[in-house]
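Table S5 (text form). Sequence records supplied for joint modeling of the two-component complex.
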Amino acid sequence: MTGQDFGPALDDADDRTIAGRAADGDVEAFAILVRRYTPLLRAYARRILSGTASVDDIVQESFVTAWQRLPELDDMGRVRGWLMRIVSRKAIDEVRATRPHLEVDGAEGLELPARPGDRPDQRAEQRAELTALADALRELPDAQRESWVLREIGGCSYDEIAEQLEQPVSTVRGLLARARKHIIVRMEEWR
Amino acid sequence: MTRDDSTGSGGLGFEPEDLDGHTMDELGDYLDAGRTPADPSIDASPGCRIALDALERLRRLGPALLDQDTAAEPQADENWVRSIINGIARDARAGRRIPLSVAEPDDDLGITEGAVRGLIRSAGDAVPGVLIGRCRLDGDVTIPGAPIRIDVEASVPYGLPIVRLTQRLRTEIGDRLRTHAELNIAGIDIVVHDVRDLPKGGGEER
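The corresponding structure-token record, covering 397 residues in total, follows.
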């Protein structure tokens, strides 16, 4: 697949090796990076966007940007988190294109539907917890969900989230606190 | 930002009156700091402890949710991967141009820095088990004969003597660069950044 006639499979090499080669212009190494992280980046974009939008386009654009900027990355071993940052920026940009004004106070009219009762009984507890978390996330207003996902899944700092959402840090803190409260309370109710 | 968000908390309260005057924002920071320095007014508060436990559990669930979502995503479709690869600018990594000596003064021969990196990677392929990562050419490659240092990162298999591998790699790189790039190599620094297990049954020796 890599065009090597012998030797260790590049496909299994560590991130630092693969990303380093890609930064130096090895296109096949970059293809490995694309294969390795497409599922993760799709999943992450989906959580930020809550479904509807075209995650494939976002992930594709992100990889194009990544190819262009990879030589600037200081620590090639951290390419996973770096790719996630690129995806979150693209995803938030996408959101902003369709929703010019962030509804920071969107929690006001939040409707709380009863949770569907089709939850299988035999599901492992962790799985049930994750499902509950996913459901609670879906209920959140966009800005709260985006803040929470960037923070707790993407590992972004408050400053990074503020920059991406174009909001003051104090607003981000408020969004996060409300998102956390909402998720915790809902997960507790569903237990 | 401490306004009630009307979630109908059903017994769980996360407002300052439930948290002995603290806020969820503060408790988040306290967790981020590893609960240090210890704040007795938080640690002694039953409401805060409930909230901290819940926040901590939630924090563990974030990465787990991403793992689960990722596992549920299909592998990248190969056509889609190719469409990305075909769309990127391959020449973006050409780098500096390295002149080669020519028989006629009017001839203008050279190779790119990117091509030299390709030579270095292929030198790695000649040493079983070695994978070259990033490499840099340190020095003014645009001036013929200028001393150039080569910095190379490599991943090597577990169980083979690293010194021997790197010596062989150094020889392979040096030979190729002197032959094909006419570089005046002042030194080749190899940093082994990864030692990995070989896949079972993978021929580690030719």
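Note: The mean pLDDT of chain A is 85.
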